[in-house]
Amino acid sequence: MSGWRFEIRHTPALRVDLRGITPAALAALSAAQVERVRVGHGNTSVPLAEFFHVAPGPDDTLHFAGDLARFDRVGWQMGAGRIVVEGDAGHYAGGGMSGGELLVQGSAGLHAACEMSGGTLRIGGDVGDFAAGTLPGSMDGMRGGTLVVAGRAGARFGDRMRRGTAIVFGDAGDFLASRLVAGTIAIGGTAGAHVGYGMRRGSVVFAGATPVPASTFVPAIAEANVFWQLLARSLAQHGGVFAELPARRIERHLGDLSAGGKGELVFSI
Length: 269
What we know:
This protein is 8% helix and 30% strand. The chain is mainly β. It contains three helices and 17 strands. The chain has a single domain (63-268), classed as Pectate Lyase C-like, CATH 2.160.20.60.
């Protein structure tokens, strides 16, 4: 693969759809061919060169320089390679990823990592609502891989998540882990209302503030020391507030019983 650097020319008047702009798709193209690749802009499509100066990069990475807050689907369905956004990204960043690495140094919009099944997505700032969740009309959210958010997360984080690991160093909004099917979510800050609403399985770990669980969650009686040490050591590798987890004791609450769920809220103490 060959890398490319894209420097934004101007902020678009309408939102731009960058689906298809992946390392694998551009690997065999010349600079002139890359400039002619068409991307969605409103209800039409335009050449990539309309918005970016295109130049070869020093490695196999796709580097986007500038504010991409109005550019959606960065890394959409990426299966391999590496993409770096040196600023903010729009909606659906990393949606449908199955492999590779996407690094957003700023914040990302709605539906980041939606239906992601593999690879790693790292967001240096905040992330909007429905991250690690489902696309509208779908039944399954994030299905694998790793999502790391250095800032805060919006509402419905991990909605219908089925597999994988999703980590938020800051606060999370309302309905965290709603309808969770499986997988692991770890929160370093506080969470909004209705944590674990309708969750069926999976684990939600709180490394910071401990929320008050709903009445449909009950305290666990059985110990889970072996499980906790394995999980805590895995999360500790991400550093920050999670680094101290292996040395902490835990309290677990099981539910959501109103949905017949067997998930767990794990409070580190």
